[in-house]
Amino acid sequence: MVRVDDSGDITKCWLDTDEISRLAEAAARNDWERELAIQLMARCGLRASEVAYPGDAELRYSDDADGWLLEVRGKNTKGGDPTVRDAWMPDPVEANVRRFARERDRATSEAWVQASTSSIRRWVREAAAHVAEADPQADRWRAVSSHDLRRSWATHHLVERQVDVRTMMAIGGWSDYSAIEPYLAEPTEARIGDAMRG
């Protein structure tokens, strides 16, 4: 794992893209729907509580963005009623959710993932436990939570890809800098090397 912080009350894990793929593959062994849930959190930045909302009706291609945008109704980090934002969806995730919707005969108005927030969180724990069975860092995998997927997504884009904070706030649903600041983790060794060689 890129990093684990167990200094506080909650262990925080940051997964790299290969580890996220391993987690999604482990989830897919139980059900394709579980894989989609992990992809929506780890590749699109959705919170576990947001995963059961979107379906085909909320997905659209933007010519201006030259990519897929997904309407998400989610947490208002200032409090109050949920907010609506457009999250970015990578092409491979779009292809997977469309194929899933066709094969599972989901109506356009139906959500792709039809599970409670607690079930989605449990799916992540179960997939991580499955990966832990064959990994020398098993204890670290057993600490992985659904929020670690969003954390990993945000940190990857903010630190490794250097996506500007305002863009991340817009697509990730953070209403102010203080809400996104915890995701501005220290750069990885790879990022330090790239920055200092450049």
From TrEMBL:
Gene3D superfamilies registered for this protein in UniProt: Intergrase catalytic core
Gene Ontology molecular function, alphabetical: DNA binding
Listed SUPFAM superfamilies: DNA breaking-rejoining enzymes
Biological processes annotated in GO: DNA integration; DNA recombination
Keywords: DNA recombination
Domain Tyr recombinase: 10-197
Name the record gives this protein: Site-specific integrase
Originating species: Haloglomus irregulare
